[in-house]
Design brief:
This protein is mainly beta. Helix content is 12%, strand content 38%. The protein has one domain.
Length: 120
């Protein structure tokens, strides 16, 4: 089975923005994504964002797939064609290639110093 590299721009999720939030001890830069309008949903153990990888006809920037938010069937069917086409591409995906480790091969086939100094 292949491994893939996936990059997403979460600021392209509908309603997402970056802001500074002040806590008790520090102010931190945070990504805020509204749950109801973004495609996120709360489940029993977390907050989820379903994504779909769509294969592209031609690879672009080494990506073979584009990543989009995947909506429930009823939500998708309620969208107009214009709304469907306006859904942003959040990122891309491409297969990671395994590279074989290669040892340099010297041009000589003679053993230097003989076999007496081998550790085995």
């Amino acid at each position: 089975m292949a491994n893939f590299s996936i990059k997403t721009d979460l600021l392209k999720v509908k309603g997402a923005f970056v802001t500074n939030l002040k806590g008790k001890t520090a102010t931190k830069r945070c990504l805020v994504i509204p749950i109801d309008e973004s495609g996120l949903f709360l489940g029993g153990k977390g907050c989820y964002l379903d994504l779909t990888a769509i294969e592209m006809k031609e690879a672009k920037f080494s990506d073979t797939h584009c990543i989009k938010v995947s909506y429930d069937k009823d939500v998708y069917e309620r969208m107009t064609e214009e709304e469907r086409n306006a859904q942003p591409i959040l990122g891309g995906m491409h297969q990671l290639e395994k590279k074989q480790a290669q040892m340099p091969i010297s041009g000589t086939t003679e053993v230097q110093g003989g076999m007496d100094d081998c550790p085995f």
